[in-house]
Structure prediction request, 886 residues.
Amino acid sequence: MTAPAIELKGISKAFGPVQANKDISISVQPGTIHGIIGENGAGKSTLMSILYGFYKADAGEIFIKGQKTQIPDSQHAIKAGIGMVFQHFKLVENFTVLENIILGAEDGAMLTTSLGKARKELKHLADEYGLNVDPDAVIENLSVGHQQRVEILKALYRKAEILILDEPTGVLTPAEADQLFRILDRLREEGKTIILITHKLREIMDTTDTVSVMRRGEMTATVKTSETSPEELAELMVGRKVLLRVDKVPATPGKTVLDVKGLRVVDEKGVERVKGIDLTVRAGEILGIAGVAGNGQSELLEVLGGFADGTGVITMNGTEIPLTGQGADGRARRDAGISHVPEDRQREGLIMEYSAWENTVFGYHRDKDHQSGILMDNAGIQAEAQEKMDRFDVRPPNPKLAAKNFSGGNQQKIVLAREIERNPDLLLIGQPTRGVDIGAIEFIHQQVVNLRDQGKAILLVSVELDEIMSLSDRIAVMFDGHIMGERDPAQTNERELGLLMAGITDTSAVTNGASEEALNDG
Amino acid sequence: MDKMPKWADIVLIPVISLLLAAFFSSLVILAIGESPVEAFKLMVDGALMRSAGWGYTLYYATNFMFTGLAVAVAFHARLFNIGGEGQAMIAGLGVALVCLYIPWPHWSLAILGASVGAALFGALWALIPAYLQARRGSHIVITTIMFNFIAAALLNYVLVELLRPVGAMDPASAKFPAGTHLPTFQDMFSTESSKMFRGAPANVTFFLALAACVFVWLLIWRTRLGYEIRAFGQSETAAKYAGISPVRITVIAMLISGALAGMMAVNTTMGESERLILNATEGAGFIGIAVALMGRNHPLGVCVAAILFGFLYQGGAELALWTNIPRELIVVIQALVILFTGALDNMVREPIEKLFIAMRRRNA
Prediction:
């Protein structure tokens, strides 16, 4: 057997009192795709940051191709043949592809020579791995999928033999993700070693050869992908049995609660993000909006939630609500019976520095029952917060702790508790489980379905197709500010939705095979 | 989890910072051939060992409390109001108008009237930068600084051309009538047998400043408005989500800030000079920034920091009077205090945090 491409032995790393990595050992065979899966905060990113020289491990050894290697910084990592593709790309937006690729790897003071050399090399890489990108395109004009290719090219240009990808599909359409995995396959065939970090079980099952599971800073298992199942992996990640499917009965929709007609939204830069959409949400149903991030879903939620302006006609329970000026703010929306779990809980839904109890009234802090005289009824709010936190199983159940000290899933539970407990007519909910651990996902999905069963209208926006498929009673797909079509989740499949998400409305080819597809999935 | 106990954050770190500032100040004093020990003794003697010294220290502290609170309130909304100086100058005009043109029967009524005048004028002077920030996005730091200069020029014009009594040589208003004279600490605390606070300018406004500290504490941590101000300061997008109007909060926070800065004019113009003079503010508006920084934008911290800076001010004056240490050096010492307590906060904080974490781990 050849020496492993990477071998870590007994890696430990603590941040203050938090043990992020505990005695981790892992061995990655060359020419394989090795998945690392785990919940947020399980220590995946810390481990990779140690491998890439961002952090120094407190203890442990790193072997590259059997050689013991010190990686004090990323320069050493690159020299050792490690390339990293971050979740958030590290590209200069207004540089061309070529300029980005040589950035930090220029030969000498004059750029022309290195640019020329890079152009040749790039052509060679494109032919070898099918990584086609126009070398003279400016980054900001490229699609997200192509930007990611540039990141991969950057690593390959630096002679990377080992490629680490951190949550690479978070921003991609299903089609783009498929392309990415084809590229990774090609890279594997050419003998490169790939480490894929993700929290998506399906990606692991589809693409990897071996998978390591992390939980609370420890490596709980390393198994051959062909010998495991999603259920087993989920259990290894969470430490208990997890329900991967949402339990729900068919919806019994009632009267129309929200009616949107001809909604247009222009953002601050003057770009039209929502280009005239119509939709309705009825009581007792979940309308899921699918789409790749950045196709106008966020703006749709912002206008409905009252913190962005729009034009068009929106009626709520039969009454038109204003979209600009006075009466178009978050308070007025709440008064109209709209609750909102925003897409970005850390920037919108919560004040991170505020304690949990202060956050449980955020947006409702002007309600009469939270006042005592001219002061706020802090004692009352605290007591109520404690009850809510117990009911929603927020851990730790300490209302005085600042929001930033809770995990993503528990932060989301705080927001959810606040918005659901108000008994709204309509719940807007954006990316309900982004950055939320599997155990909490189950809980959050159940809460949303329960609310539906109580006869509330729910508008769900998510980039996770699985989530849309399993929660929604109807699915609308957004692309470039338009709604491309509406589908019944029982009569569609991921490929059809994927085409709609890419702006292709002619989906007859895939719908014909839908039943067959569904059989295969089951 | 917090990285260290609260007491370390509130007490230990400022004390270490102060000791560092004192150490470097000593080096500077040594460098010009004076004795740091002597200098420190003189400062303490002059500012704290006699009641008259306290009378000056607390007079300055009153100014710094108002301007420090002003900066702190704005800062909770993430607005950096460095226009306290200008707001206090214009507020002086408000105080003068109230004192000169309304016949007050008693000082207790006059101080209420003057407070309203000061707060109103100070708030108005903050309103324009606030509006420009909220509606036009003009940066509040730039506009408030510019408004300091406009205030100085305006005050100069008003004093020379409008308020100066006929025949008077200096640019100052007429003396305020006797009904507006505020009781000084000397008036309040002296007994037949012993004169206290002899000649010192500290006056009843000091208690107004203490009341302002309580008011700000209630406002920021116990009211809806304070909740909204802090929320807006932490995250504007979150504030919008919650239906908090950024325009409204920006304007209101700056109005309160301007009013607080303006209140200091009650102390200087009504309590001390008893007429409106040029440069009554003596840079207190800027010291307020340091006071707020050191006091961590908390009213109690501001109160303590204001007294410390009052001590530095008064002790510095004593030094200039009795030694060859030039007055400019006092500014150096003040600057060192600001540098260590404010700007270099993290230099002290990080090692101490590490120390506490290491200790905790050893105990665990």
